[in-house]
Amino acid sequence: MSNILLFTEHLTMQFGGVVAVDDLNIKIPTGEITALIGPNGAGKTTAFNVITGGYQPTNGRVTFDGEVIAENCPRAKMKRIYNGSYKEPYTHTVVNKPDMITRLGMARTFQNIRLFKDLSVFENVLIAKHCHIKAGLLGATFRLNRAEEKEMAADAHDLLERVGLWESRNEKASSLPYGKQRRLEIARALATGPRLLLLDEPAAGMNPKETEELSQFIVEIKDSFALTIFLIEHHMNLVMDISDSIYVLDYGKTIAWGTPFEVQNNEAVIRAYLGVDEQ
Amino acid sequence: MNIKKRNTIYSLVAIALFLAFLYWLDANRLKQGMMISVLQKGAILALVAVAMNLLNGFTGLFSLGQAGFMSIGAYTTAILIIPVKSLDGVYYMNGVHPAIMSLRVMMAESPPFLQSLYPFIALLLGGIIAAVAALLVGLAVLRLKSDYLAIATLGLSEIVRAIFSSPQFDQITNGSYGLNKIPNFPSMLWGLIPSLVTPFIITGVCVAFIVLLINSSYGRAFKAIREDEIAAEAMGISLYKHKEMSFVISSFFSAIAGGMLAMYMRSIEAKTFSIMLTYDILLIVVIGGIGSITGSVVSAFLVTAAKEWWLRFFDRPLTLFGMEVPLFRTGFRMVIFSILLMIVVLIYRRGLFGTNEFSWDAVRRRLGRRGKEARS
After folding, report:
1. B355 part of contact set with chain A, CB < 8 Å
2. In the predicted structure, residue B255 carries a pLDDT above the cut 90
3. A231 closest CA partner among A66, A37, A90
4. Nearest-Cα residue of chain A relative to residue B217
5. Is residue B218 less than 8 Å (CB to CB) from chain A?
6. What is the CATH number of domain A1-105+194-279?
7. Would you state the pLDDT for residue B117?
8. What CA–CA distance (Å, rounded) separates B28 from B59?
9. Which of B236, B245, B355 is the closest to A192 by Cβ?
């Protein structure tokens, strides 16, 4: 199990009568690119939100790097645990807020870009560095942490150069062209120093050329930052090109998983999602 | 680098000139009463406005509890600095609480060196009490968002006011009679800084602290929360912790300004800290620009001067060509003031400064442009 960075067990997210994610079991091996695909409304983003702490799961467990980061056991199931009729008990509840999970080393981007719009590109990246600050409030106010502050700025500089945004560092984030905003969002996530990067539809709204560039970029940062990547995407070319394994969701249920080749030839997937046009 | 140095020199010269002006005022304080009182009130309101801006403009928390925290500061300061021999006169109806009396007697018997520090300790203590109150209240209130937070903090401020004027606290706050005989601002550094200048120094130091905070990493985190809470949280910024920080710091400085207001007004009552005070401060923040520190400071002085001084003309009966102009009577200046406000808000949609700060470069650019226009 040591080469599995993140895995979920029976992860379920229910909103009233709607089961958005139903019994999701995924394993994300260290250093690989894992993709989560499925038709619109299949529960992909909800799964993301549960993993990153946005929602408290209604059932199941998420383990990141050997540590349980989210766990929940509904009351009904509790009873069955005591009866002995339920085999896999999650006997306690673990709640982690998104910011704690980020500090553990898991960063994400958003489907609809969520940059700090009125701040500069440089500040956007610098803010992401704040989560690991050691100086306290007074220390930082009286600039007793000059060295730390300098290091943060240097890291942000380095990062912006590596993603090719250093030239536009003083521009407002909202004034960047769309492709660069996507790139900045990834850079900002990288600035938190993650081991696992979760990308929510990074190629949404991009043309084929931009998508091609993006897939190169993802592979590039994966290698240079020693990352594990988990992504949601609709562009099949990108997914099939770069992912090592793929999970397919439909109506919250996992209908298939495997290598891109296996998934492409899976009948359930073709029926549910890829349709006749795509392949 | 050179330009930066020059700008620093400009700023230092401006501050020195202002200080020299204050010393001149101190020398002529009998003739310049109005100017002094407007400037002092402006300085006090500037500090609250900046504190409120830290919360509303930089952290994006719409809070209307400023008056409540100011009253905590004002009452603490007043109770601790009213001269011992006046205490019985102030609390003539209900008598002083024995604990306060014995504390005050103890303070009066301490060495003179300490006694000169007590006003500042009182201000600080007021701030700390308000900060602790904010910390506790924040636990519950900061879960709320936008308008709901505003309503909760508004209610909180009214609760504080009601507590201060309640008969149960007669022996501490003197109930609805309020506190008077509060001494004026203390002088600093063995009289080197006269009492007239003290509020400006305190405001200057406090505003400088807030500016340093906003430009630090924590300040950036506050701005991130203002821009997008969900994204900020995903970037590892603990919303709760940072909102609480901002709320506590803002309350601390509001209370210090409240304490200074008590010294300025010389007598306070719970009614002074009604919701209207918060609205006045909100007005200053909005006129100056939500998210601009220098905007808040400048607008604090402008609004105070306009309201208390420049528009006095409209309050006096005016006779033109042997005819009395009908509208000119007491209170008319507030009508003019409101009209002026509307005009300012219509012209400057985002306040005088928007989210920008004052900078010498901007001044030079504007002057340069004007110069070019004149030449062409």
Report:
1. yes
2. yes
3. A37
4. A130
5. yes
6. 3.40.50.300
7. 86
8. 42
9. B236
